[in-house]
Amino acid sequence: MRVVLDANVVIAAFASRRLCESILELCLDSHNIILSEHLLHEIHKTLLKKVKLPPKRADQIVALLCGNSTLVKPIPLRIDSCRDPNDVKVLGVAMAAQADAIVTGDKDLLVLKKIQIDSNTHAQKVFVARW
Fold first, then answer.
1. Per-residue model confidence (pLDDT) at position 94
2. Residue 122 half-sphere exposure toward CB, CA atoms < 13 A
3. What is the pLDDT of residues 58-111, one digit of tens each?
4. Could you state, in order of their start, the residue ranges of all structural domains in the chain?
5. Which fold has domain 2-130?
6. Residue 58, class by beta-carbon neighbours within 10 Å (0-12 exposed, 13-18 middle, 19+ buried)?
7. 3-class secondary structure per residue, 65-112
């Protein structure tokens, strides 16, 4: 399955190491993770500034993601494609990659019905049920 991991899921995987860590591990093991330069930049910046990881550790995480994902350039979409204009690039990544799902905790993405969007909790149920 081609899965776009929203930055909030990846950040939570390394910050809190709970459900999102399990989701990331499952995606690394069994799915094709789709990311973009924009998402990688957001992940790196947040790991440094908000999670306060050392720069070397944040660099290692980005390298891990780069080595285990497909990077795509988002399809440009209208700014009003989503309630939050900051989420438009995530949708553009999903559409460019013809992703099967976006795994996110972002309520502005979760309200959309045009593509499959799963909350962190729901994604765990879906993925675990498949195995």
1. 87
2. 12
3. 999 999 999 999 999 998 877 877 788 888 899 889 888 888 888 888 777 776
4. 2-130
5. Rossmann fold (3.40.50)
6. buried
7. HHHCEEECCCCCCCHHHCCCHHHHHHHHHHHHHCCCEEECCCHHHHCC
